[in-house]
From TrEMBL:
Residues 32-126, 135-159 form the CNA-B domain. It comes from Streptococcus oralis subsp. tigurinus. CDD domains: CollagenBindB. Transmembrane segments: none annotated. The lineage of its organism: Bacteria, Bacillati, Bacillota, Bacilli, Lactobacillales. InterPro entries: Collagen-bd_Cna-like_B-typ_dom. This is CNA-B domain-containing protein. Coiled coil: none annotated.
């Protein structure tokens, strides 16, 4: 005689003689986080060296709760381009009590001067670059246009530096 068993989801079976051992082996998933910076390529130099996001989970439509011990820090070394950082939470369980887990994220401390928004697995930090108001006066040193050479308008160009 031999013993067989139909496969059981998320279990690995070992058969020795007439003993069947089922070991729970849940499927693990990765959850990729993308950080997008909308700050004119860090024009004002306010972008921090790192940001941290907290992982949340929801099962069967429940209110999302923080997953203990699951924070992810992203830095410039995680960049895929000048304004995008990418990292992943790894080996996360896909199911809890037989129901699929829905994961979400939230930035822990939004950097000063930025507004954060989350869409799916993308956290976008937006910073509107600082602006300044410039004013000036054009002075003509031509004896009140005695020779009639003064132009009707003047074009002024502002240069950085």
């Amino acid at each position: 005689y031999t013993v067989t068993e139909e496969a059981v989801a998320e279990y690995e079976s070992t058969i020795t003689d007439f003993t069947i051992t089922n070991k729970y082996a849940p499927k693990a998933i990765d959850y990729k986080v993308t950080k997008v910076w909308k700050d004119a390529n860090n024009q004002d130099g306010k972008r921090p060296e790192s940001v941290t996001v907290q992982l949340f989970k929801s099962v069967d439509g429940s209110k999302p709760v923080a997953v203990e011990g699951k924070k992810l820090t992203l830095t410039a070394k995680d960049k895929t381009d000048a304004n995008t950082w990418v990292a992943s939470f790894t080996k996360l369980p896909q199911y809890e009590a037989g129901k699929e887990i829905a994961y979400s994220i939230k930035e822990v401390d939004v950097p000063a001067g930025y507004e954060a928004s989350v869409t799916g697995q993308v956290v976008t930090n937006t910073h509107n670059p600082d602006t300044v108001i410039l004013s000036g006066t054009k002075v003509w040193d031509d004896n009140n246009n005695q020779d009639g050479k003064r132009t009707r308008s003047v074009k002024v160009q502002i240069l950085n530096g």
